[in-house]
Amino acid sequence: MPTITIKSEEQKDAEADVERVHDDLGPFVVAAETTRMAMVFTNATEPGNPIIFANDSFLSLTGYDRDEVLGQSFNFLMAHASDAQSLATIASEFEGNSAGGSEIRYRRKDGSEFWAAIFISPVRDER
C-alpha cells in the first residue's frame, strides 16, 4: 500500500530553494550531483544556514535521506565533541562570506562519528 507523506512548510521551502538553485546554477548543480565528493549547498542568508542541496555522495556518507537533510541547519551533523575553535571558524566563514576550511567531527544517522574536511566557498547571485 502506498504511503502518503505530508510535507511541512519548512520542507516545501527547502525544496523550492533547491529548485531555484537548479535553475540558477544549472551545470554547476549537475556537476555537484554527479561528483563522488560529498557536497551540500546552504543558504547563508538564512539563520542557521539551512541546507538547500545535498548530493547522493553526502547522503551515502551520512546515512540520511534527502528529505531528512533539506532545511536542516548546516551544523545539525556536528558531533557534540566538535571543538569550539572549529565551530567558531566555520561560523566566521559563513558570516564573513569568505572561503575557507576546517576539519570537524560529524555524526552519521546511525550515531557513528567521522572526521570531515569542510570547505566553505560563497556563491553569490550577482543579479
UniProtKB/TrEMBL annotation:
Question: Boundaries of each PAS domain copy?
Answer: 51-87
Q: Which domain of life is it from?
A: Bacteria
Q: PROSITE patterns, per this entry?
A: PAC (PS50113), PAS (PS50112)
Q: Where is the PAC domain?
A: 100-127
Keywords noted in UniProt: Chromophore, Flavoprotein, FMN, Kinase, Transferase
The record, for CDD domains, names:
PAS (cd00130)
SUPFAM superfamilies for the chain: PYP-like sensor domain (PAS domain)
Q: Which GO terms describe its molecular function?
A: kinase activity
SMART domains documented for this protein: PAS (SM00091)
Task: Quote the NCBIfam families the UniProt record gives.
Answer: sensory_box
Query: Which PANTHER family does the entry mention?
Result: PROTEIN TWIN LOV 1
Q: What name goes with this protein? A: Histidine kinase
Annotated source species: Phyllobacterium zundukense
